[in-house]
Amino acid sequence: MAALYDDVVVGAGSSGAVLAARLSEDPARRVLLLEAGPDYATVEATPHDLRDSTWISVVRHDWGFKADAMKGREIEYPRGKVTGGSSAVNATIALRGVPEDYDEWARLGNSEWTWSRVLPYFRKLEDDQDEGGPLHGCGGPIPVRRWKASELLPLQQACLDAGRALGFAAVTDHNHPEATGIGPWPMNQRDGLRVSTAIGYLLPARQRRNLTIRADCLVNRVILEGQHQPHLHHDRRARGRLDARGIATLALTRVGTDVSLARIPTHTTPDRSAARTPARSGGRP
Ligand SMILES: Cc1cc2nc3c(=O)[nH]c(=O)nc-3n(C[C@H](O)[C@H](O)[C@H](O)COP(=O)(O)OP(=O)(O)OC[C@H]3O[C@@H](n4cnc5c(N)ncnc54)[C@H](O)[C@@H]3O)c2cc1C
Question: Ligand 1, residues 87, 199, 219: which to mutate, most atoms within 8 A of Cβ?
Answer without folding.
Answer: 87
